Amino acid sequence: MSKETITGAEALIRSLEYNGVKTLFGYPGGAIMPTFDALYFHKATLHHILARHEQAAAHAAEGFARTSGQVGVCLVTSGPGATNTLTGIADAMIDSTPIIVIAGQVATPFMGTDAFQEVDLVGVTQPITKWSYQIRRAQDVSWAVARAFYIAKSGRPGPVVLDFTKNAQTEMFEYEPAEVDFIRSYDPYPTPDKKQIKKAAELINKAKKPFALVGQGVELGNATEELRIFLEKADIPFGSTLLGLSALPSDHPLNKGMLGMHGNLGPNVMTNKCDVLIAIGMRFDDRVTGKLTTYAKQAKIIHLDIDKAEINKNVPVTIPIIGDCKKTLPMLTALVKRAEHVKWIEGFKPYEKKEYDKVIKKEVFPTEGPLNMGEVISAVSEAVRHDAIMVSDVGQNQMMAARYFKFAKRQSIVTSGGLGTMGFCLPAAVGCTFARPERTVCAFMGDGGLQMNIQELGTIMEQKAPVKIIVLDNNFLGNVRQWQAMFFGHRYSFTQMMNPDYMKIAAAYDIPSRRVIKREDLKDAVEEMLNTDGPFLLEACVIEQGNVLPMTPPGASVDEMLLEIK
């Protein structure tokens, strides 16, 4: 069978199709124009979403990847088009999100001459990608795309960048699709050490007060059911990291809530009381551990992770188990004994009551004053029966959404965890609607984060993407203001915001909207939003100087959480 002679640009599009891509996000420009021209003839099979900014295209690819389990793809031009994606690439790297950013590049003869819109993209992105590669010949396209997909989605997922020179896009060659399932020196799925698993099981079987820390790695490894079986057999209570919150349902009897700086009181305090700490698919981020010198010093620590680099990076562990938790969890479960830890689990209740009385009741069920963020988020969660995909931005809105939105299904939380990217929410939510069109997507953001990528209302308008936008408007950069109040003598240095009329902006984009100020109008406003087909913008005018509590102050131990700010 003779091979077809086609351009490198056409080969790239066919290679995307060969790797199962049906949706991609991007923005055209000079150096990538031949590829966009090739894309024109594949409209029936490839749905390209035109973002309004390249950063937003990268975040949309992230949202798509997080909720579909597939690789998100982003297609942009060279120079500023490529550099605009850097925040999305870095975000995907630290949060282990599989995306591929394909950027145009000047033709090979012009490289190094400071040609128009030339940037050394490979050099810039190497520290923030799993792999960054420049395609200089059309004949390398199939191999490069196949390798990119393999690297992005295998092992610990992450971003890949393909820098596609213009001459490689226009060159003709005999095309043949490629497959890559092995790379020398790259071991994405380490073989679990059975001896270590046996030691870990023995430790768990002797434990009187075991506690598990559940991270996003469980979701990435499609091991949520394996996790449930393990925890239930050994009767181990657990807390979740921010990105691990939807690994198991919020109402699971062993689920004790969120870990970390603004997490729940019980799991944080009990971290420093347990005798065996089992970390599963999490990386001991500083926002989870607090002061390292006092973190879980009384406990033997077992760490299950697919990435060897995470072992002993921040917290020294007793028994490391390196491997895919889809495999390691069942191996561990087979060796642990069925147990009951009734008294230990009962020990969480006083902390739960204390947090409810001092924090949750006031935040979610106030009887007077302005609306609270927590009550708005809780009202939305109740209205969707905890069944929606929750996307959040960064700041107080993120922490409040993580605390008060509840989850019934996996792959239901999408937020910028490690990088803390303001402006992430709106475009990421767009990506979610294309990944999971059958699910409701609720996007919670502050007035600051919305305005960082507000142009994506244009993408929502054009695509009629059914994003339910909830703007928690407090006229402040709330999280920074809270820190200024607590640690900088209430000196609110450039955190108060003068905001536009969001109702007028929504109307300009033909997006239905409503502003809610009074508590008695909240339920009806939420119902109107959810009953409206397509996108909707709900502006909730919340208390201006509210605070996210509990809080572990920076430099404090995880069991030194503040329940009030005096």
Q: Quickly count the helices.
A: 24
Point out poorly predicted stretches: none
List the strand order in the largest sheet: 3-2-4-5-7-6
Would you tell me the overall average pLDDT?
98
Helical residue percent band: 25-40%
Main beta-sheet strand count, sense and barrel state: 6 strands, parallel
Q: What distance lies between the first and last C-alpha atoms, to the nearest angstrom?
A: 78 Å
The radius of gyration over CA amounts to 24 Å
Find the structural class using helix and strand composition.
alpha/beta
Shape: globular
Q: What is the number of E strands?
A: 20
Strand content: 15-25%
Explained architecture:
With 566 residues, the chain is an alpha/beta fold. It has 24 helices and 20 strands. It has a six-stranded parallel beta sheet with strand order 3-2-4-5-7-6, with helices on both faces. Helix 13 (286-289) links the parallel strand 12 (276-280) and strand 13 (300-305). Helix 9 (194-206) crosses helix 14 (325-335) and helix 17 (373-383) crosses helix 18 (396-404). The longest helix is centred in the middle third of the chain and has 16 residues, at 349-364. The termini are far apart. The mean pLDDT is 98.
